[in-house]
Amino acid sequence: MMPVRCFSCGSVVADKYEKFAEKVKSGQDPAKALDELGVRRYCCRRMFLGHVDILDDIIHHAKC
Question: What is the pTM of this model?
């Protein structure tokens, strides 16, 4: 689950995550994908590059 805002500057980043993930999954360079999405600040870029999507793993092991 991607945070809604950047931890450092407060800029909204969650609305761009799906497009970023699609571009990277299709083989595009992450730096180029972030440039195309307009993510210029280092603090916001680290939100995308450092994000690990583990929600599916947690749901898989959850007992209901």
Answer: 0.83
